[in-house]
Amino acid sequence: MSKQVQQVETIFCHEIGDDYLVVVERDGQRLFRAKLGLSETSAGPRPAKFRLKDGSSEEPRQPDEFVELARRAKRIRISEQTSKQGREELMEMLSGYQLEEKAKAVRTCRYCASAGRYSPITTETAVKDDNDWICQDCARQELERQLSYSGGGAVTGAAKDRLEELMLEVQDLERIVNLLKGQLDPDLTKFDTISATTDEVDPVRVDSLNLHPGLQGLLEDRFETLLPVQSLAVENGLFDGEDQLVVSATATGKTLVGEMTGLNRVLNGKGKMLFLVPLVALANQKYEDFQDEYGHLVDVSIRVGASRISDNGNQFDPNADVIVGTYEGIDHALRTGKDMGDIGTVVIDEVHTLKEDDRGHRLDGLISRLKYTCEQRAKRRDDYGGAQWVYLSATVGNPEQLGAALESTLIEFEERPVPIERHVTFADGQEKVRIENKLVRREFDTESSKGYRGQTIIFTNSRRRCHEISRKLEYSAAPYHAGLDYRRRKKVERQFGEQELSAVVTTAALAAGVDFPASQVIFDSLAMGIEWLSVQEFHQMLGRAGRPDYHDKGTVYVLVEPDCAYHNSMEMSEDEVAFKLLKGDMESVMTHYDEAAAIEETLANITVGGKAAKGLNDRMLGDVPTKHAIGKLLQYDFIDGFEPTPLGRVVTEHFLEPSEAFTLVDGIRKDAHPYELVADIELRDADL
């Protein structure tokens, strides 16, 4: 022990029962541990026993060896966790050997001291545990133990990292554990704030527009000046027929960009307007909006559905001035050879749909076919100048690239009218509903400076879950999804608009669509069906929180179930996905083709364009393997030369993939009931 004595740097003393634990260190490394016992003498307290500890065994040594160690040490540290009486006894003993100047009481980790480790902590590094302060390493271990004890033993990965990060930030273990018990501590749940921003744009006065008198008067009655994104569009040739890609946040007024130029061209005899959206619910809403706002100026019609089984018209008048439709509804009209007349303006809302695996290729193909149809019409009619295209989106990761691919002028405006505060908390599926109830109540009980109560959109991943949550909310709430009939959906929209509902619970599939002026968005799930949301979809949804004319700010809560997945095919867990979405960059919008998508769009292009199909394929955004697709179409007997066969025509008119077509043909040959054949594929397209 003599060699060790000569190299002693620190002696640490911590009270254990009637004795003291002694830890001897050099260069931050423990040399050994010992137990020190003092006894009272006429000269004061003195070492009475000194035993080296090795695991559970103890080796008795001469008490004077402690005194020799203390003399050799550079410093002696006494744990603040030692009782006042114990500290005084140690200091009196050290004073008896003139060693008191080396000694100092320090704050140390209680757990480390009990385990025989010297672990000094400071105000900056300590973590509160009940009434004690512990080191960060022990706090991490204790957090893990507490989570396991409270039923959160599965908390690992990104969730555990987040909780540890928060614990070290606030230096309080109990507050972190309480997060998993549903306590909504805003200092802990808050992830960040997306600040309100205002780009400097000189507003265009409405009375300077020189539009058709009917539209000009209507706009002058509503506005004095245009909003910034609208002003930018006008300054960049909107009324000169320039094709434009307008990228701007939700509620910044980009929809009116398409409406203004489309209606002006209609009223000036430059062709009808098509306003195309991805969802039936949104098409119905836009149709009613157009009827209410512009019905006295133009005839409005709607074209939705008809993509699978029947074509019952859907109130569709191809001669109307304005046709609101879903992508598939208008594409069906093209695939079945309906005469759309002179089209003067095409507005594609939610154009970022181009990137979706299942539907992006259909929008890509529709744009190509519709452009071809307009161009052919223009060639036949010298007095018809073709169509102006306006593409709208709030979420595009590659706006310059997309604008160039669409041959459009990019109008990008990054203003966010109100700030959005984003929060993350952890809970299991049942606990989520309790938290949602608390959040909905709190929001609805709050009134903005503009006089509106706070209302909530809750996004979840299934229709069944929509009903489950809405039933359990204490304040008035309603489910809203594509499985509800039109009348029920319109009732929910009206009730929400009139502030009769505190919340709507909807599926992620409707995120891009219906216009609910909510102040708060809650993510009950980060999945759409059995697929995780993309960063783009996530931003599209959270952007629904906060409207400048209604609210002072938007609030978003992401409720995360650690280590949860909704299907065994999902590779990541919900907590991993949550931080990927919160921190991730917006994905690029570009269409990708697998074999089935290439075959479907090539067949549709042949049906519409015949020998021009290759040119239609070439102008699409995605890279379509045309030769391979045509070879497969010939092999499947879907085409004969550059004409669809009767089978091919049925396939393209009903948006069938080859595998679906073969299933139907095989079933027909086996006399299967038609309902059995169509039910499966029809259910997959329930949200079109």
Automatic annotation (TrEMBL):
Instruction: Give start and end of each Helicase ATP-binding domain.
Output: 235-414
Q: Which organism is it from?
A: Natronorubrum sulfidifaciens JCM 14089
Which InterPro entries does this UniProt record tie to the protein? Answer: DEAD/DEAH_box_helicase_dom, Hel308_SKI2-like, Helicase_ATP-bd, Helicase_C-like, P-loop_NTPase
Pfam families in the record: DEAD, Helicase_C
Q: Does the keyword Hydrolase apply?
A: yes
- What protein am I looking at? DEAD/DEAH box helicase
Which positions are tagged coiled coil?
Answer: 156-183
Q: What Gene Ontology molecular function terms does this protein carry?
A: ATP binding; catalytic activity, acting on DNA; helicase activity; hydrolase activity; nucleic acid binding
Q: Key word rRNA-binding present in the record?
A: no
Q: Which UniProt keywords apply?
A: ATP-binding, Coiled coil, Helicase, Hydrolase, Nucleotide-binding
What range(s) does the Helicase C-terminal domain occupy? 434-590
Gene3D superfamilies, alphabetically? P-loop containing nucleotide triphosphate hydrolases
